[in-house]
TrEMBL record:
It catalyses: uridine(13) in tRNA = pseudouridine(13) in tRNA. Its EC number is 5.4.99.27. HAMAP family: TruD (MF_01082). NCBIfam families: PRK00984.1-2, tRNA_TruD_broad. It comes from Candidatus Tenderia electrophaga. This is tRNA pseudouridine synthase D.
Length: 337
């Protein structure tokens, strides 16, 4: 059972090397909720800037300050610790008096906005994230860098799950859990291991299609996803209309997030996905036993609002990504690790 594979590059292996996150300020992420808090309700809604601070640790600090249980504090998504990030937290207060949130502030944490909302923030409810990044001390020829960036702006990049999903040993722990060698009672850890297993299978399928040059075009038997949604539909035969919609990024080919039930894909796409699944048989069987259901994820990741500037040997990038995607999927097409 392979746990990690070498993932193919859409634009070929980059020849440039560079330093990512030389300082936290070199990796800035601003969360975009996609809606405005209600301004009233039982949940405090806090917009917080963090520098070098872990999302879960800030949530625990909020719970202690408010005198509530950890489960009463929620957030829409995890953010990198080694970065400067802004994100929203909700705190269920009910009839509990609202604390002085400024007591939480220090050199790593700043309260930007404190308001109210009628509902708790749930994982994945955000629209996406805006990134501002510096790649420092580039080594190699930058002659084709502009062309790479223009291609990425036009076609997007393969929508790989990033290394954050796999952690240090999440795949090994997932395999051990599925094989019965370890018991995982912690629901959060169990969820992390399940997600890592699904991501490994998806990345394998996507890498095969990247290598074949079919990750951003339609194949007979594909399952398409409407842009900006999770709505999917099967395509038995690719026609001119489907090709046009893919080119216009109105729809995207998808790959499997493994679980119970039959794969919705057909023809050669189904064959490829079943072959990749067989290479991860322990993961597939474990995910099915765990009750996960077959879902789909877009193979292509479009970038919004892409800007760049080369300053000597340093590259500045800014772009917007929809929730659930990774900036590392963009960076790996520009610089080698």
């Amino acid at each position: 059972m392979p746990t990690t594979i070498t993932l193919a590059h859409a634009l070929g292996q980059p020849t440039l090397k560079g330093t990512v996150r030389a300082t936290p300020e070199d990796f800035q992420v601003d969360e975009v909720l996609g809606f405005d808090p209600d301004g009233s309700g039982e949940h405090a809604c806090l917009h917080i800037r963090k520098r070098g601070a872990n999302t879960a640790d800030v949530a625990k600090q909020l719970a202690r300050l408010a005198g509530v249980k950890h489960m009463d504090v929620s957030y829409a998504g995890l953010k990198d610790r080694h970065a400067v990030t802004t994100q929203w937290f909700s705190v269920y207060l009910g009839n509990t008096p609202e604390p002085d949130w400024s007591q939480l502030e220090n050199e790593s944490v700043k309260i930007l906005t404190a308001t109210r909302h009628r509902r708790k923030l749930r994982r994945g409810t955000l629209k996406g994230n805006r990134f501002k990044l510096w790649l420092r001390e580039l080594q190699g020829d930058t002659a084709d860098l502009g062309q790479r960036l223009q291609t990425i702006a036009a076609t997007g990049v393969p929508n790989y799950f990033g290394e954050q999903r796999f952690g240090y040993d999440n795949l090994e722990k997932a395999g051990a859990m599925f094989a019965g060698r370890i018991k995982v009672k912690d629901r959060n850890k169990r969820s992390i291991y399940l997600s890592a297993a699904r991501a490994a299978i998806f990345n394998h399928v996507l890498s095969q299609r990247v290598a074949a040059g079919t990750w951003n075009c339609g194949l007979n038997g594909d399952v398409m996803m409407l842009a900006g949604s999770h709505s999917i539909f099967p395509v038995e035969q690719v026609d001119e209309d489907i090709e046009r919609r893919i080119k216009e990024q109105d729809i995207h080919p998808t790959g499997p997030l493994w679980g119970r039930g039959a794969l919705p894909s057909g023809a050669e796409v189904n064959t490829l996905e079943r072959t990749c699944g067989a290479a991860h048989a322990v993961f597939c069987e474990g995910l099915e036993r765990a009750g996960m259901r077959q879902e789909r994820r877009a193979l292509r990741l479009p970038l919004g609002e892409l800007e760049w500037r080369l300053d000597g040997r340093d590259l500045w990038l800014a772009f917007f990504l929809l929730s659930g995607s990774y900036a590392t999927a963009v960076l790996r097409e520009l610089v080698s690790a």
